[in-house]
What we know:
Helix content is 34%, strand content 24%.
Amino acid sequence: MNIHEYQAKEILKSYGVRVQTGVVVDDASKAQEAAKKLNAETGTEWFVVKAQIHAGGRGKGKVQETGSNGVVLAKSLDEVPEKAKNILGGTLVTHQTGEEGKKVNKVLIAEDVYYPGASEPKEYYLSILLDRSKSCNVIMASTEGGMDIEDVAANTPEKIVKEWIDPAIGLQGFQARKIAFALGLEGNAFKEMVKFIFSLYKAYEGSDSSMFEINPVLKTSDDKILAVDAKVNIDDNALYRHKDIQELRDLSEEDPAEVEAGKSGLSYVKLDGNVGCMVNGAGLAMATMDIIKLSGGEPANFLDVGGGANAETVEAGFRIILKDPNVKAILINIFGGIVRCDRVANGVVEAYKKIGNIDIPIIVRLQGTNAEEGAKIIEESGLKVASAILLKDAAAKVKEVLS
């Protein structure tokens, strides 16, 4: 589950991680009051207005309606309302949102942390995530903060340092110091970074996250280390242990079809193709998408109805797939192991009749327990549904309806 920057910073702060202080607002008329509050708390006289969406690249992104960037600097209290107004309610387009962009419902009014002092502020990159190939967490750090880490990895991979954490003993002191040394820090900034890394790792484990990305981590001019931005992804499988975090979910940031699928107990991911697919089992779903491509089509979605497919789940799957105007055909591919094929076939027929007005071809491939009985139900239904037993037959029928 993704959360907003301001929510992520609250989690970090609760674990002792120093963050850039800010106040979130959903109305431009409240922006100046938020800035005044921030001024009283921190003494800041400049303010950063930051769009809150689930996507990176906000600073370089543009609000379609106003041309404003997604992250802007207000150099006085009087500038804050106008800066917030130019972002709130607009559609922010970044390299991660795609051309459709995302509507900005909230902005974070944050303190300016790039103040003058004894030394120049310096930005770093720091992230923690699970390295599945080594079955342990890895901390990634770079001196190239503020940049897309993909660009750094492609152009200057030597500037990324990695430290793998043994799950049996956790993060060790020498590892945190090794990262701080690699970033070229010394003196108080070095000590601050070591402390920052430990607090960050504690927050990562404590919140059951699957990824922390802090870009940039800032060394201020007086050698404080703090998180200026925060991208946090929580492991969905652990949310039952974090009811408070679960409440941070922002459904407006998610694809409506995926939200609807989740409510029906379906695993759904929208893609850009023209053939909808409904399958039981993630592995079979991947194979089905391959078959669609080999047949000359493109998968329009990943949809796993699970092992207990019935009329209700099939109907829900149909409704979700049919909401995509790009879908020209639907391939239902079921392997009857836990679930019987005749039961699925009855579910398809019932769902078809209940929804009605389905004007695109549907191919149903049933294999496994009671596959022949299921195929007979489909064929005798009188509906515009083609049945197949072998995967190559299903592929041929997909190719036929697309030609």
